[in-house]
Write a structure and sequence with these properties.
Number of helices: 2
Helix content: over 70%
Number of domains: 2
Shape: elongated
Length: about 80
């Protein structure tokens, strides 16, 4: 009886590992296919573009803020004179 359950356990474990390995192999095959590589490259380019747009926006905001500070300081200096 115990022997039967042990065999069923290992049979089930073997089926599970086989299915996992098959799915993993299929996913890797799709990932490294020409279409998968193209999609990966497109996602990377989009991410870099998004990061670049964010950096430019932050830079423009900082530049505007600093220009306002400098303009305010210049006006204060003119008032003192």
């Amino acid at each position: 009886m115990v022997r039967t359950f042990r065999r069923l356990f290992w049979f089930g474990a073997g089926v599970g590992v086989t299915l996992w390995a098959q799915r993993r192999a299929t996913a890797l095959t799709e990932k490294f296919s020409p279409a998968g590589m193209r999609n990966s490259a497109q996602r990377g380019v989009r991410r870099v573009g998004s990061d670049l747009r964010g950096a430019v926006g932050d830079g423009r905001q900082a530049m505007s803020s600093r220009a306002a500070e400098l303009t305010g300081e210049g006006e204060r200096d003119r008032r003192k004179q």
